[in-house]
């Protein structure tokens, strides 16, 4: 148990640094820490206080992770050329053509995947004694080094070794079956792909960090809201002054949403909208 305690202290040190991690790097740190906790519990055969410590430290990283998400969105929008990506899809999603592996969780984006991430998060590893936990230490050993990308994607009947042990279902794949993608008519750009990826990540965190649900949902909404506003400002012929003063210019629901977004904290149009509103 002394070894576990020493390792736990090192994990907490790692999570202190994780606040500086951005994007997929933070998700990798989170995945590695949760795997470590689950392996430690399987090895000792009991639930460990380490899990609560790690989850608390991860929850403290949510704010910095979201700040990095918003900074990435602002940069992506500033560099966006609004050209459609020639992306192929899997399971009704859109994949990033810059990635060499369409099976990677970070490169294949399911445009209908928020509900799936909420109900079947790939990062949710139940504690020892809970339903769905991987209590058998031999299963972890058979999976090999779970902290490498190769091990995480090792498949057993369409699932990783650990997913199979947890009873997680096989995810359908259009590419595997040869069926044409249901998203063939959809258009993705670099910034929209980034928003989808980060929203999916946030949704996947919700089952893992239930105490952070409000903050995580607010983060999902913030990403969507700001992308919606950016698209509206760029592609509509409606200026902010008209948006404020002309009630019948847009459908009521859309206009209300846009006004709410433009007056939210941190929006660069907030002062301009308030000045137009008198």
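^ structure tokens above, recovered residues below v
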């Amino acid at each position: 148990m002394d070894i576990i305690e020493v390792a736990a202290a090192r994990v907490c040190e790692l999570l202190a640094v994780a606040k500086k991690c951005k994007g997929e790097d933070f998700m990798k740190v989170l995945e590695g820490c949760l795997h470590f906790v689950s392996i430690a519990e399987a090895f000792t055969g009991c639930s460990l206080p380490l899990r609560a410590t790690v989850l608390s430290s991860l929850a403290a990283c949510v704010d910095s992770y979201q700040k990095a998400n918003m900074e990435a969105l602002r940069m992506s929008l500033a560099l966006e050329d609004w050209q459609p990506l020639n992306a192929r899809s899997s399971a009704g999603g859109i994949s990033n053509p810059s990635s060499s592996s369409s099976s990677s969780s970070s490169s294949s984006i399911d445009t209908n995947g928020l509900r799936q991430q909420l109900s079947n998060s790939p990062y949710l590893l139940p504690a020892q004694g809970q339903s769905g936990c991987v209590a058998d230490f031999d299963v972890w050993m058979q999976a090999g080094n779970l902290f490498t990308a190769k091990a995480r994607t090792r498949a057993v009947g369409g699932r990783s070794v650990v997913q199979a042990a947890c009873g997680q279902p096989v995810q359908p794949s259009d590419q595997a079956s040869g069926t044409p993608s249901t998203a063939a008519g959809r258009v993705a750009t670099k910034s929209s792909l980034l928003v989808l990826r980060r929203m999916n990540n946030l949704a996947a965190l919700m089952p893992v960090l239930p105490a952070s649900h409000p903050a995580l949902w607010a983060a999902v909404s913030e990403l969507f809201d700001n992308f919606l506003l950016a698209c509206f400002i760029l592609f509509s012929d409606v200026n902010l002054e008209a948006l404020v003063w002309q009630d019948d210019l847009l459908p009521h629901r859309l206009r209300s949403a846009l006004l709410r977004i433009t007056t939210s904290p941190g929006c660069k149009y907030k002062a301009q909208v308030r000045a137009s509103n008198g």
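DSSP finds 14 helices and four strands in the chain.
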